Amino acid sequence: MAAGKQIALGFSSYGRALSFVFNNGLWPYLFYPLVISFLIFAGVFAFTHLVADYIKQTITDYTGLGTSSGILGLSVGWLVSILVTVIFYFINATFNKYIMLILMSPIMAILSEKTEQQLTGKTYPFNMQQLVRDIFRGILIALRNMLIEYGIIILSFFLLFIPVIGWLFSVFFLALVSYYFYGYSMMDYCAERKRMGVMASSGYIWKNKWLAVTNGFVFWIIFSLPLIGSIFAPVLAPVAAAIAVNHTDKNT
Predict the structure, then answer these.
(1) Is residue 178 packed enough to be buried (19+ CB in 10 Å), middle (13-18) or exposed (0-12)?
(2) Cβ partners under 8 Å of residue 139, min gap 6
(3) Domain count, the chain
(4) Can you give the pTM of this predicted structure?
(5) In which domain, by residue range, is 188 found?
(6) Is the pLDDT of residue 2 over 90?
């Protein structure tokens, strides 16, 4: 499927997912991310400010930039403070979403399976052993993607020293990487039901990479909405991915 069609399908599948959740009795699953997001927020909020302030203070104390006299010294110190805060919040934001993906893995696996059952009529008899495997695979995939993404973030950090072009490229590239891995996690639940190994799943998702990027992008947009985002995003994303994958498989 062409890139444009994958992107269009990625967006339209979320529109269908919202009505699908409420029309097929999946709305009670919204209570799970509600509880989880509250617990994450309570712990991460304080931790974020504590660590960010510590890093900024350590850098400014070590380099003396925070106490340098003159406009240049104050400007450089201010710039270091801003960059450290932005980088830390970016890393924390991605980490926060991966925590949600890991903790919601059992629910996402169930939602993805129930969506496919409704769309295709294919039933999957309950199997505790298979469910446990699905959950562990979802957790391992999320951890694997998080480590790869952070590795790319660290490598891309050096681009920040290239004015303007390096900054723009870093932001754009890192955003695409994040969106891809979020979508990857959602689509892998479908790949697992097809009994694809991790390598086969990676190949399948890379073939439909713009679908994964779009799914991850919309997930990120919804997740970023105040109050309701972290509740709806983890439920809509796997449902939208299952809808999109089902459409893709029927038309290939």
Answers:
(1) buried
(2) 102, 105
(3) 1
(4) 0.74
(5) 3-46+93-247
(6) no
